[in-house]
Write a structure and sequence with these properties.
Elements: H1 14-35, H2 46-82, H3 87-103, H4 108-146
Helix pairs in contact: 1-2, 2-3, 3-4
């Protein structure tokens, strides 16, 4: 089975999407807690600062992991129901995340705008992942072509 025969459906990458969302959320949580430190506040104590940092990291990483779960589940459900593996699956996954985020505001306008915005982000994510996978398949060939000039021609004996 060659590398061209292997197709990775959105359902196969849900766990990596969740792990990626968790990791991005953890990094953003740490940056947020470092940014909002106030000099001279009670959190100047290092033990309290690290506790606040861990709390911020945990909350943000959990939120991002939940959004990534919704995105992956929406893309997987779209792939399952439609039977095709195209960028529209990620658009539906992004729109699902936008709908949930918009529902938190309680206004239909917020739901529609969030769905549109997150749907566009999902589409861009789909295009980027398709482009990356295409380049990833061709990567060994590119390296071989780039380093062919290093090979010395065999001298006749």
């Amino acid at each position: 089975m060659s590398g061209d025969d292997i197709k990775e459906a959105p359902c196969d990458s849900v766990m990596s999407t969740i792990a990626g969302g968790f990791g991005i959320g953890a990094m953003l949580g740490i940056m947020k807690s470092l940014y909002y430190q106030i000099p001279g506040s009670p959190s100047a104590n290092p033990a309290i600062r690290y506790t606040e940092m861990a709390n911020a990291m945990g909350k943000t990483s959990l939120n991002f992991a939940l959004m990534a779960t919704m995105f992956g589940a929406g893309a997987c459900a779209s792939h399952t129901f439609r039977g095709t593996d195209d960028v529209f699956n990620q658009t539906i996954g992004g729109s699902l995340v936008g709908a949930v985020l918009g529902l938190r505001r309680g206004k239909i306008h917020s739901v529609v705008m969030s769905m549109a915005f997150c749907g566009v982000l999902g589409t861009l994510s789909g295009f980027a992942s398709k482009t990356y996978k295409t380049q990833e398949k061709d990567y060994p060939n590119v390296i071989m072509r780039k380093f062919q000039y290093l090979a010395k021609p065999e001298s006749p004996v």
